[in-house]
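Section 5.1 Outputs to date
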Amino acid sequence: MKKVVIHGATNTSNFGDILFAKMFYNQCQNLGLNTYFLNIPFYGIGKTCRSEVGYEKKLSLFQALKCDYLIMMSGGYLGEDVSSFKDTLKRYFRYVLWPNLFLMCKKSVYVLGVGGGPIESKWLRKRIVNVLQKADVVTVRDYETKAYFEQYGVTRNIYVTSDTAQIYSGIYELSLNSEMKNIMQELKEKNYKIIYLHLVSDEKKDSLINKNIVKALNKFIKTHPEYYLIAGNDSIVNKRIDEYESYQNITTSNKVGYKYSTSHDLVSLLNECDLVITTKLHVGILSASLGKSVLAFPTHREKVERYYKQIGESGRCLSLKKVNSDIVFNMLENYHDKKIVLSNEILKKAMKNLEYISLIKEKKGDNCEKKSYN
């Protein structure tokens, strides 16, 4: 049986990365591949990811290098949000060193559905380009990622797909935990529409949410009393929801805090909501894939805007630093009842990231059928 190692942002409780780990692991298992994650300090699979994926194996680096394939799973880890020497070294040791080691050992590397660029460090660029040049297959989730790495020197075929997480709800059956199920049942009985406000634990960002979004939300809910607000985050944190400045300043009594527990539980909750407001990527992506109305106010410099451009919904996405409460209120009025409908083409492209794994069973690489995978 072929042995496959999956790597990416697995040492985290972050919502999107956990979804990716789960989806890629299950796809490999379904194909009958002997599947592992890297088990190395700081950069290998973490406790939260292990629990959600249902993964109990342990694999040393020496054992990993004896495996046949390395899959670099989806995620935005080939781009820099901030540029610093420390961040460059972290990114190299966390993500880039390992595929380079596999390539040095003459192993096959598949890079599937990643986001990337810009990379300010020329030293880091060179090493990422080396991985992409020598990998068996490279797919990226948007044209901007492809353009960056072609600009940096990649000359091989890079296939543009879309974000893998968009097909999650088409694979897994959604189900709320008992507490939220009871709350949601009560709200539905009272004919409330539901807003999900995505909070982040960073105090500076929370202050911006409070300043630019909450004031607009208070005005909106006052004129639209049919809405009930649920506020929560997308990773495991010690901070209670009622400790967030933004939550404290939401004036309506029709609100409740949601404490994040698992990625699947959050997807199930988003499926019950009507309007989702987020500053990050994957809460918005999952909500879009579930046919919800989404407003995105990112703090990351590029990746969130790329997604809404790709699905033809750029008007729903403005930088949190560039909006004010009046702009946000107008966006709420304009979009609150306009659902996102993803095209079949986008969903098919998202699925391609997982379908490429079947090439491992077929012993094919970059010479795969171009017409089928473009």
